[in-house]
Specification:
The protein is of the alpha+beta class. It has three domains: about 80 residues; about 55 residues, Helix Hairpins (Orthogonal Bundle); about 140 residues, 2-Layer Sandwich (Heat Shock Protein 90). It is about 60% helix and about 15% strand. It is built from ten helices and seven strands. A hairpin with a 3-residue loop joins strand 6 and strand 7. The radius of gyration is 36 Å and the shape is elongated.
Amino acid sequence: MKKRKKPVKLRVVFGLIVFISIFAILIVLGVALRLLNIDFVRQDAAYGGSALLGIRMLLIAVCVVAGITIEQFVNKKIFKPLNALNHSMDEVTSGNFNLKLSTDSRILEIKEIMSHFNTMAAELSSIEMFRNDFISSVSHEFKTPIAAIEGFATLLQSADLTAEERETYTNYIINSTKRLSNLSDNILKLSRLEQQELILDKKEFNLSEQVRVAILTLEREWSKKEIELEIEIDEIQYHGNQDLLFQVWMNLINNAVKFTPNCGLIKVLLKQKNEQIIFQVIDNGVGMSDENRKRIFEKFYQSDKSHNSQGNGLGLPLVRRIISLHDGIINVESELGSGSTFTVTLV
């Protein structure tokens, strides 16, 4: 078995390089002095060589001072930042991502290394925070319906329940079961879509008719709230995944219905502009704050912190991923109390 060589510290390697360099400089200077000042050397030899010895001592002193200066400079500008980086890397491996190294070095490579480390630490901190939020959200989303099922199932064991109470508790259990089923389905769908880079199952279909079907499918919801719909749809054929895009229109229109008050107004637009297809859902509902608007595409994020509203915070992340896989983009404009506008652009 080949014996592994013991690693050598960079400081030792650099010290050897400096020592060898200074030794070489002394030799070169000594040879140059002899070649250029032969007469001086002969004359000085007659007087005991004191001048030549003085020059040699001066050269040695200069080289030693130069070596110490170089060593101090390298220690401050290179080794000190590298030691800080080494210590910070140990902290990162221990799970501490709240680190930031100084980037004021005049050495470009050191400055870039520190900058890249800070970026890496910030990204890891963001990922860790997202992971913790994800676990907390998943736990909450599963725990709530499970607790409801357990509670109402226990109540159903009571022998003196009325028929109305029994039906109410049963409906609660059914709704909680549906919520769990939808949550599991959405997690699996989003996980599967995040692993995909391309959609292979694409075909030509009538996009206009698909949007109309989505509106009709949700008729019960918007009719119940007596919401007025304004619909402007161009006739458009599109090449894409029909099933996935249907989820997009259903989710966006359903969200608009959910957050629009009774007797409100929703506009659904589908337009062809040059090579682009523009789909918009505009409502005059509750709208969103800037903070909510910036975070609505995060997994499990819900503006309702109590999680009492329907949904599990996966609908819009699914929508964005589906649109992205179709090389499209989705934007949202919203103002608290003034409604929201979701715009999907496909090419």
